[in-house]
Design brief:
This is Ribosome biogenesis protein BRX1 homolog. The chain is of the alpha+beta class and about 350 residues long. Helix content is about 25%, strand content about 30%. Strands 3, 4, 5, 6, 7, 8, 9, 10, 11, 12 and 13 form an 11-stranded mixed β-sheet that branches. The protein starts with 13 loop residues before the first strand and ends with a helix.
Length: about 350
């Protein structure tokens, strides 16, 4: 009985051959080494060609916090067709972003702009000719923070699910096209995997766009959330890239500065109301004390004074006699008189 074992690897790999001889329960193995130039090329997964050359630049301005940094990293992990860049200086104008995209060979951009170290704005733009949209980002929850049970293959292509309201209004239809071109992974991209195992959902509720990322389970096609999640509050849509004529302005948008001011005014009004209540209570207590101090029956035993007859003076008063003091000598003169 003879058998042979072969190990195939790279080019020029040694192949071992073994010969087994069975004789009365004893086995003898003879090995011989031989070299063969064999190259094994796996069959291609798909014969398609990468034609959609969409590239997305994801970066931010200075002054962002750790949560925004983690969100940007999560988006870069989810989007294999994305690129990163260093933080942009605050002094630079937003039109500089178009030049950065041209240098990086990107035609889409996700730019996160931080203000006052507490407000986060997101620009999504088609560079260099536009259109672009500006959002206020709220309720950010990153992948590390959520700890969801969902999982998907890194680099796999997602499905994009949109709310039916995106087709009813023109500004939502424009945003839908922007989202499709930005978040969808191009087919046959070198860094992408030829699988579809997760879905991005864009829902509209309370005049805001809610972003969620779900895993598609193969057994029953149910969804399990992966993360991250955030809410986009639309501010304006511009015709150009990071500027230009305004195509749409959200009438329901309220600036976070105005919202904080209203909260402060409400808190101040509440404090003033408490102070007024305290003053009213003090006045009431004072009036109650005065009512207690005044006794109604105190004047019962008080007798009126006897009325005296009125005396009318008809004669003038006698003049007062003023005594004139004699001149008193000085002390020195009195002493001289005493010596005499």
């Amino acid at each position: 009985m003879a058998a042979s074992k072969r190990k195939r690897g790279g080019e020029g790999l040694a192949v071992k051959k073994g010969k087994f001889v069975v004789d009365e329960g004893e086995a003898q193995v003879e090995t011989e080494k031989a070299t063969r130039n064999e190259v094994i090329v796996p069959a291609p997964v798909s014969m398609g060609k990468w034609t959609n050359k969409e590239r997305v630049l994801i970066f931010s301005s200075r002054g962002i916090n750790f949560r925004t940094r983690h969100l940007m990293q999560d988006l870069r992990t989810m989007m294999p067709h994305s690129k990163a860049d260093t933080k942009m200086d605050r002094k630079d104008k937003l039109f500089v972003v178009n030049e950065v995209c041209e240098i990086k060979n990107c035609n889409k951009c996700l730019f996160f702009e931080a203000k006052k170290k507490q407000d986060l704005y997101m620009w999504i733009s088609s560079c260099p000719h536009g259109p672009s949209a500006k959002f206020l980002v709220q309720n950010i929850h990153t992948l590390a923070e959520l700890k969801m049970t969902g999982n998907c293959l890194k680099g796999s292509r997602p499905l994009l699910s949109f709310d039916p309201k995106f087709d009813k209004e023109p500004h939502y239809a424009l945003l839908k096209e922007l989202f499709i071109q930005t978040f969808s992974t191009p087919r046959y991209h070198p860094k992408s995997q030829p699988f579809v195992d997760h879905v991005y959902t864009f829902s509209i509720a309370d005049n805001r766009i809610w972003f969620r990322n779900y895993q598609i389970i193969e057994e029953d096609a149910s969804l399990v959330e992966i993360g991250p999640r955030f809410v986009l509050n639309l501010i304006k849509i511009f015709q150009g890239s990071f500027g230009g004529p305004t195509l749409y302005e959200n009438p329901n948008f309220r600036s976070p500065n105005l919202h904080r001011r209203e909260l402060r005014l409400a808190a101040a009004a509440k404090v003033r109301e408490k102070q007024m209540v305290k003053e009213l209570q003090k006045i009431k207590r004072k009036e109650a004390k005065e009512d207690i101090d005044e006794d109604v029956t105190a004047d019962v035993f008080v007798t009126p004074n006897e009325e005296k007859p009125v005396h009318i003076q008809t004669e003038p008063l006698a003049p007062k006699v003023v005594k004139k003091n004699k001149h008193k000598a000085f002390k020195r003169q009195r002493m001289q008189r005493g010596r005499r």
